[in-house]
Specification:
Radius of gyration: 15 Å
Strand content: 5-15%
Strand order of the largest sheet: 1-4-5
Mean pLDDT: 85
Number of helices: 4
Distance between the termini: 34 Å
Structural class: mainly alpha
Length: 129
């Protein structure tokens, strides 16, 4: 993978390559491990596809990084990650966030975990500053 450090480097390259999505698993050359645990998509520790909580956690970490090494792309990328998580995984009927989702947008795991909500609240608070 060729990384353009001038426009956000690694994170933006991953986002651009996958349409604003970050896979849960990658191979050593940073190609998506898109078949990893496909037969067990609800695996608690190594699930298939995309974890909502990791999108918002990356957003939070980018906003924290911005405090110490500010770059123009930090807020834009954090907003992109947060908004993708909300658009893909927010459950308007059940009022919560689904744990994981598939590339086609389908929800894979409807369970609710405290850490996902905690990361979402933290990221939302930092985005509001």
């Amino acid at each position: 993978m060729c990384i353009d450090h001038e426009r956000g480097g690694f994170i933006n390259q991953l986002l651009d390559d996958a349409g604003a999505l970050i896979w849960e698993h990658y191979h050593s050359d940073w190609t998506p491990g898109s078949e990893y645990n496909k037969e067990d998509p609800r695996h608690l520790f190594k699930p298939y596809d995309y974890l909502t909580g990791h999108f918002v956690e990356w957003a939070k970490l980018l906003l924290i990084l911005r405090r110490y090494r500010p770059e123009d792309w930090h807020v834009e990328s954090a907003e992109r990650l947060f908004n993708t998580a909300m658009e893909r995984a927010w459950d308007g009927e059940g009022q919560g966030v689904h744990y994981s989702f598939a590339p086609d947008g389908g929800i894979l795991d409807t369970d609710r975990y405290y850490w996902v909500l905690s990361e979402m609240i933290a990221a939302a608070a930092l985005l509001a500053l």
